[in-house]
């Protein structure tokens, strides 16, 4: 299939077409909840000398989010939930982790992801055509696993009970010139909890902020940042393909959340390519597309567009 080459602004435009124009908000994941806490590292041999892991406890700014460009979206609905996390190092640099609650992305390239989104646009009569989407998925198998996830996805019970997947591959440069190839997940220590349709129907439109605040009062809300170590045959450019589950896992550290509900994350750009010393992004074209798309969205929302 021929897929038209896309640029970052095409995504900002299609998000606005799909979810409406909401000036001043993020063009994706428009609805969010700021939180803050601390990161305590677990130094290990695969990340020798990483500044991220050798400076003890570090402050973290977090934004949990609901997918889509509607800032008033219905939290009863199943679907994408996200987390952006920025850990601040003593030298003023940041390490960012920005992930979603699904284990595979909707397409191996920005072109395919954009083509898929295009099938969700309503026609001139305001009607969408599920058959068109189905046909696209059949012609573009790399969308399939994510579409399957979406079909069976349940409503997140709380951000504190959601697992977030980094999806892309990253590298860490060891002092011995070896590269550690990895993907990360952020795992809730309170366990993953979802609501089935009947349970979700009983909830108000908005409950995520209150549920989270209550959990902060009652218990310890924390997440482990866990990485899978990749082998040569594991794709480092395709976020629509999961790595085998038996890859060795290493914990980078634990994030404990202390506060929620401020405006502290409003003017942050959780660009997943902004990482601390020694870490580098892979050549995954989806990962590469994220920086310019986030930058356009960031500039627009800061200027009230
Ligand atoms: C070509 C692919 C993608 C495009 C074009 C895209 C685009 C965007 C844009 C424009 C924003 C708003 C940024 C801002 O205003 O600060 C955003 C936010 C977000 N995206 Fe993506 N995204 C892509 C892939 C992904 C992937 C693969 C993930 C998960 C691994 C992801 C997770 C998130 C999250 C969690 C947020 C909210 C960040 C925050 O709270 O500030 N995105 N995305």
Automatic annotation (TrEMBL):
<dbReference type="Pfam" id="PF00199">
    <property type="entry name" value="Catalase"/>
</dbReference>
<dbReference type="GO" id="GO:0042542">
    <property type="term" value="P:response to hydrogen peroxide"/>
</dbReference>
<dbReference type="InterPro" id="IPR020835">
    <property type="entry name" value="Catalase_sf"/>
</dbReference>
<dbReference type="GO" id="GO:0005737">
    <property type="term" value="C:cytoplasm"/>
</dbReference>
<keyword id="KW-0732">Signal</keyword>
<dbReference type="InterPro" id="IPR024168">
    <property type="entry name" value="Catalase_SrpA-type_pred"/>
</dbReference>
<dbReference type="GO" id="GO:0020037">
    <property type="term" value="F:heme binding"/>
</dbReference>
<keyword id="KW-0560">Oxidoreductase</keyword>
<comment type="function">
    <text>Has an organic peroxide-dependent peroxidase activity.</text>
</comment>
<keyword id="KW-0479">Metal-binding</keyword>
<dbReference type="GO" id="GO:0042744">
    <property type="term" value="P:hydrogen peroxide catabolic process"/>
</dbReference>
<dbReference type="GO" id="GO:0004096">
    <property type="term" value="F:catalase activity"/>
</dbReference>
<keyword id="KW-0408">Iron</keyword>
<protein>
    <recommendedName>
        <fullName>Catalase-related peroxidase</fullName>
        <ecNumber>1.11.1.-</ecNumber>
    </recommendedName>
</protein>
<comment type="similarity">
    <text>Belongs to the catalase family.</text>
</comment>
<dbReference type="InterPro" id="IPR011614">
    <property type="entry name" value="Catalase_core"/>
</dbReference>
<dbReference type="InterPro" id="IPR018028">
    <property type="entry name" value="Catalase"/>
</dbReference>
<feature type="active site">
    <location>
        <position position="29"/>
    </location>
</feature>
<feature type="binding site" description="axial binding residue">
    <location>
        <position position="294"/>
    </location>
    <ligand>
        <name>heme</name>
    </ligand>
</feature>
<keyword id="KW-0349">Heme</keyword>
<feature type="domain" description="Catalase core">
    <location>
        <begin position="1"/>
        <end position="302"/>
    </location>
</feature>
<keyword id="KW-0575">Peroxidase</keyword>
<dbReference type="GO" id="GO:0046872">
    <property type="term" value="F:metal ion binding"/>
</dbReference>
